[in-house]
Design goal:
The protein is an all-alpha fold. The chain is built from 11 helices and no strands. The radius of gyration is 19 Å and the shape is globular.
C-alpha cells in the first residue's frame, strides 16, 4: 500500500484493497491491523493506538482484530473509518458510557453465545439474565456469574471450549479493567460530588 508524505491514504482505495492482518507491524507496508489502518487514514503517526480514537473502542477493535481469522478479520474494514474522531476526554461521561456498554455486550451477549455453543446453557442463561450493566453497582453483580462461567468453560471439553472460556474470561477481565479505569472514575466522581454536596 502506498502512503503519501503526510502519512495519508485514500480511504476508499485502501478499504477496497487492504487485507487486515493480526498484531502490530513496523510499517504500513509490512501489514496493518484495524487500528494501524485508522492511524494511517487519520494522517497520524503509524500506531495501533491512534490518538483520534476512543481508547475503549480502540481496545475493543484490537482484541477483535487479533481474535479473528484472516477471512473474518476483513469484516472490520468498514468500521475503521467510523472510529476515527471518537476520542472523548478521559474519564468523561461518554467514555464511561462506552465502557459499560461494551462490558454489557460482552457479558450478556457475546459470552453467552459461546457458552451455548460449548453446551454450557445454564451458565449462558445466568449471564443473559443479569440486569443491564450501566454503572459500577450493576458491574459488581456480574463478578460471580462471569467467574463461574469462565471456570465451567475451562473445565469443559466441548468443541467450542476455548472460545467460550475466552469470552467468559474476557468478560471477567473486562470487569477488572473497567473497575480500575472507567468504572472507578465514575465511582470516584460520584463520591466526590456527594462529599461536596454534604
Amino acid at each position: 500500500m502506498k502512503v503519501d508524505n503526510d502519512n495519508k491514504v485514500n480511504a476508499t482505495t485502501v478499504l477496497d484493497t487492504i487485507k487486515l492482518a493480526k498484531g502490530q507491524h513496523p510499517t504500513p507496508e509490512a501489514g496493518m491491523c484495524a487500528m494501524e489502518l485508522a492511524s494511517v487514514l487519520a494522517g497520524e503517526p503509524f500506531s495501533d493506538s491512534p490518538r483520534c480514537v476512543s481508547p475503549i473502542i480502540a481496545n475493543f477493535m484490537r482484541r477483535w482484530n487479533d481474535a479473528m481469522d484472516n477471512t473474518d478479520r476483513q469484516m472490520l474494514l468498514p468500521y475503521v473509518p467510523k472510529v476515527i474522531g471518537t476520542l472523548a476526554s478521559s474519564g468523561s461521561r461518554v467514555e464511561r458510557a462506552r465502557a459499560f456498554m461494551l462490558y454489557d455486550w460482552l457479558v450478556r451477549e457475546c459470552a453467552p453465545a459461546w457458552l451455548e455453543l460449548a453446551g454450557l446453557a445454564e451458565h449462558a442463561a445466568a449471564l443473559q439474565e443479569l440486569p443491564p450493566i450501566t454503572d459500577v453497582e450493576s458491574a459488581l453483580k456480574t463478578v460471580g456469574p462471569t467467574h463461574m462461567a469462565g471456570r465451567a468453560a475451562r473445565a469443559a471439553h466441548a468443541a467450542y471450549d476455548a472460545y467460550a472460556a475466552s469470552a467468559a474470561y474476557d468478560a471477567y477481565d473486562a470487569y477488572a479493567a473497567y473497575t480500575a479505569s472507567a468504572a472507578y472514575a465514575a465511582y470516584t466522581a460520584y463520591t466526590a460530588s456527594a462529599a461536596h454536596a454534604a
